[in-house]
Design brief:
The protein has a 3-stranded antiparallel sheet, with no helix packed on it. The protein has a two-stranded antiparallel ribbon with strand order 1-2. It is built from 9 helices and 5 strands. The chain is mostly helical. The chain has one domain: Lysozyme (Orthogonal Bundle), CATH 1.10.530.
């Protein structure tokens, strides 16, 4: 079943990505086993261990409009809308860009943890969060604190805002730095590094971002 068929009455099912032998991407609500990747979870607040996700949704540009439809119908997106709006205004980051980044990073699962240890909605590394004042204490580690949606969004938006300023408002360079690190972009001569993952990430976020932007005229 393709992704466009998975929205039912304002709710969504689990969404899995499967890449076939010809390299074509398909989406299904039937768990495909080890060959598939869970990209959107219908009930991320249920008990149990956090879902481990890849840092990007892996959606082709042709699926951007369907991605937006699924996001907008997702209760997890609705739950963090206010926090995203507040962070957008506080740190001067376009709300639609922020929405596209969160979609690509975690599919709006606040408990998502990547294999590299990036945590939460905006998939922040604990070391990055510590640069912005998030500290461990007796009650919680930095990683566990980053599963808090409001703290994660505030911290990630501050970081994204700093990257936008660092690269003169060039959105694609800021996104590349968010994915690969600002040092990697600088070493590439202030261009998108020649990393397949980073180049794909920038393209995917931008495709959703362009679709989210209000149409003029």
């Amino acid at each position: 079943m393709f992704l466009g068929s998975l929205v039912h009455g304002g709710a969504i099912a689990d969404v899995w990505k499967v890449v076939d032998a010809n390299g074509m991407v398909q989406f299904t609500n039937q768990a495909p086993g080890k060959s598939g990747q869970l990209v959107i979870e219908s009930n991320p607040t249920q008990s149990g261990p956090p879902m481990v996700t890849h840092r990007t949704l892996g959606l082709p540009d042709a699926a951007a409009s369907t991605t937006v439809a699924v996001i907008n119908a997702s209760p997890t997106y609705q739950a963090v809308h206010a926090s995203m709006s507040a962070a957008s205004q506080a740190y001067g980051v376009d709300y639609h860009l922020l929405k596209a980044v969160v979609a690509a990073e975690s599919a709006f699962n606040s408990k998502a943890v990547s294999p590299k240890g990036a945590v939460g909605l905006m998939q922040l590394m604990p070391a990055t969060a510590m640069r912005y004042g998030v500290q461990a204490d007796r009650g919680a580690t930095v990683s566990s604190k980053l599963t808090d949606p409001d703290l994660n969004i505030k911290t990630g938006t501050r970081y994204l805002a700093d990257l936008l300023r660092l690269f003169g408002g060039q959105t694609e360079l800021a996104l590349a730095a968010y994915n690969a690190g600002e040092g990697a972009v600088a070493r590439a001569g202030n261009r998108i590094p020649d990393f397949k993952e980073t180049q794909s990430y920038v393209q995917r976020v931008m495709s959703v971002y362009r679709l989210l932007q209000p149409k003029v005229g």
